[in-house]
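Need a sequence for this fold. Nothing fancy.
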């Protein structure tokens, strides 16, 4: 019995919501974008076009959410284009505007 009493207690694994950081993580404000990297070579041109369109739609959807536009019905093309001007990207096409609304719809 004495050997059992000398055994160290097993350490508990942190739960999913429990932080494992040793100190609090400070959020950078204002936000600085991540450094851009080159896209992988060897893909068809259409892949790059679609990839960049998705990234732009995601940026615009986030900007609209920050502006208080939460429903896809509120995000008309002119509102999406004004958000693009606000964040400093080229005005989006009809296809990109449609993609922004789709992202807002599926995120709910």
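Here you go.
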């Amino acid at each position: 019995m004495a050997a059992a009493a000398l055994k160290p207690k097993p350490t508990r694994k942190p739960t999913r919501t429990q932080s494992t950081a040793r100190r609090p993580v400070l959020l950078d404000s204002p936000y600085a974008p991540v450094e851009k990297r080159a896209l992988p070579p060897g893909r068809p041109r259409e892949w790059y076009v679609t990839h960049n369109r998705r990234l732009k739609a995601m940026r615009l959807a986030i900007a609209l959410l920050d502006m208080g536009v939460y429903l896809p019905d509120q995000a008309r093309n002119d509102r999406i284009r004004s958000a693009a001007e606000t964040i400093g990207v080229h005005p989006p096409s009809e296809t990109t505007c449609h993609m922004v609304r789709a992202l807002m719809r599926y995120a709910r």
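For context: The two ends are 57 Å apart (CA to CA).
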